[in-house]
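User: I'm curious what two different proteins look like when written out as structure tokens. Can you demonstrate?

Assistant: Sure. I'll show them one after the other, since each token string lines up with its own sequence. Here's the first protein:
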Amino acid sequence: MLTGIRFPSQEIGSDRAVIRDWALQAAGTGFSYLVVNDHVVGVDPDSRPDYGARFPGGAQRTAAAYSINTAFHEPLTTIAHLSALCPDLGFSTGVLVCPQRQTALVAKQAAQADILSGGRLRLGIGVGWNPVEYEAMGADFRTRGRRIEEQVSLLRALWTRQIVDFEGDFDRVVGVGLEPRPLQQPIPIWMGGWSGIVLDRIGRMADGWYHGGEFKPDVPQKIEAITTAAERAGRRADDIGVEGAVELRYGLEGIEERARRWAEAGATHLVVDPMHAGYHGGEHLDHLARIAQRLPLRA
């Protein structure tokens, strides 16, 4: 099981020296990869009072999930930069909200990140949950599930074919090609989400499942749902990766056991999430060594 760490996008700040030092220390500590999450815009909760309830579990929230004051570094440009600093790390988006973006542009940006990283990119994608952000991006929130399935097919075509002709419900691509194409043919596509329809989609077409959270009792059943969908689609379930997480907002104590649960469930990847644990800016650098003392990382 490979162990990575989530880039603390919301808390690390915008000092490029701190960002650089954090990435270098993460690589030196022994993490195998970095995960960078995604949101393009924040929302003013005073202008959109119903916004917070849209977040999964939002009915129980007392405040909006993210606001105009919440920082999100853009994932693919961040990965392109950090990959030059850390030539031995893998990188993943966790997850890019693909249906609110132009498919050909995502293909181009991901191809470039894959080239600059030396073929070390996994593209984690998902449908998202935020209709306000979709509106700001000029995209239709209601069709996001159908669109992401079409996007996967088009992304792979653009990455692997010199000339692409594609006619879908959302994209029409005739007589075009992407150059330079990525080193990986194609870039692995992982999907995030927990609903039955998403798990079925992962089994049918994704290279892996990005869970992104702590282990829960229903994880084995969700993995079984992915396996069933894969077998129905004539795919090998063993070829589909699983990425769990340990979240440090629940404390450092017990993370060895929490990681072990994911390993026993068959996870191929585990990401440590350092956010919302009370650390900001350069404090995240000091936290890396304490994490490494508790988890078996690569030499």
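Here's a second, unrelated protein for contrast:
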Amino acid sequence: MEIRKYQQSDSGKLADLFYNTVHTVNAKDYTKEQLNVWANGQLDLEKWNQSFQEHYSVVAFNNEIIVGFGDMDKTGYLDHLYVHVDYQGKGVATAICNQLEQTVLGNIITHASITAKPFFEKRGYKVVKKQQVERQGVYLVNFIMIKEQ
């Protein structure tokens, strides 16, 4: 597996990976209605690309296939961390996080899904707050988590 910096040409493939990961991996912890408002398949690719270009963003590859991606802003907010359904549990998220976490000197904060919470806890993140996030009138549970460095 290789990790490289995000490129604009990755945008559409990352959008597909995001949608498919949410609708398969997160399906055990969220309802279909919740999954549909979280990832509705209607991303604004221009805004999506702009966000990745403004953050430190990386893409993980295995044999030319994108298997995961993640990004972090300058404040230490870990925004996205998604791994292809066929590559779950194979160290992809760990490798991406290792790279992202090295870019920040201070604490790191993320808003972790129910599904991702155990992964972040194993990395030393602590839950600050359980919250309900509203999207289009539908509520999803996630956790504000912090890793002190």
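A detail about the second structure: The helical segments are 11-24, 32-38, 45-54, 92-101, 117-122.
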